[in-house]
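Lab notebook page, bench 4
Experiment: in silico fold of construct C2
Operator: M.H.
Input chain length: 420 residues
Purpose: comparison with the prior construct
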Amino acid sequence: MDVLEKLTILTDAAKYDAACTSSGGNRTSKPGYLGNTSTSLAGCCHSFSADGRCVTLLKVLLTNRCVYDCKYCVNRRSNDARRAAFTPEELADLTIQFYRRNYIEGLFLSSGVFRSPDYTTELMIRCLALLRETHRFNGYIHAKAIPGTSPELVERLGLLADRLSVNIELPSETGLKALAPDKTKKAILAPMGQIQARARQSREELVKYRHAPRFAPAGQSTQLIVGATQDTDFHILRLTQGLYDRYGLKRVFYSAYVPVVEHALLPAKDVKPPLLREHRLYQADWLLRFYGFRAEELLDGGNFDTRVDPKCGWALAHPEFFPVEVNTAAYEALLRIPGVGVTSARRILSARRVGPLHVDQLKRLGVVMKRAQYFLTASGKTAEGLRFTQDSALRALMAAERLPQPEMEQLSLFGPAGFS
């Protein structure tokens, strides 16, 4: 099998891994080295960098041969699929050739478990060592740490890569036992804890010694599959909150389960992936990371109402919090208003120092008024002519989402008579 055939098979096998992201690292250009990575340059697989540019990584598996038999995985050992494997030399050379042709700006490397986690990780380390030490590649590398890998190998991998990730995949231990019996919760969480502790140590060393080796300077991430098991959005979001709190993850990614295999414990192949549910989880994740929400605030069980985004859902469920007066509200309260983001909240704080704000000024500050108008006042007034109940507010918010509007019942926003 030639390299092009391997590339076709192993890039296709990698497409279900969503845990790609911009690096957040800063590896500047050096004389005699090839490439660099910085906050403005890094990114993954046609995603967007901090400055808005679309950038690309070579997203590939080292091999799709796997000794594990995870029921949801297209690469599981019992699946009848074409198998391939790069040698470390082949993949390192391919990455450099693609980089020189300006096809890519870095590498996202994952793998099936070939023979054992340690053996697979040793092959990945050889590939990355060739890139860094032989080809003197200074660009962005994101590598997957395989659960069950020895700590010393995770250490070596982290010194070669900019970002590491350990995929949890299934949100509950029950799901792991049923669908991925070769994996354990302990085997997954152990390298995550090691990566967090070693990255913190590396940052402390760099304060004292400028040329100390950097361990995974862009941090770590993980991926959760949505819809393969009966786990609710509440369970998934609470797990996400715990991962951010305990392991300091940069990102948690959510992947709507695509039924690619037939199994009694999995959704049928004719069931559509829960893409809207995945989207709502990403929106809720953003609220956890940047808006000061906690998982328990957004949900007290079950799944999100897919008709509106989680922030609008929270606002409709807490009429006692609204309306918020933008001229006097604290920054944290402004962030709770649907349609007000981090940037527009800061602009409001800055602009109101000059003079009182009025409703017609808010749009120019970046406030999305089609959502925010129902939840705020400016100088004691709402948008002109606004008279509504919770029913009309919900319909309007759904219209803003461009989703179908089913029949609705009951409702009253801010009291039986509404507010004006």
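Observations: The chain has a mean pLDDT of 85. Residues 310-401 form one domain.
Next step: discuss at group meeting.
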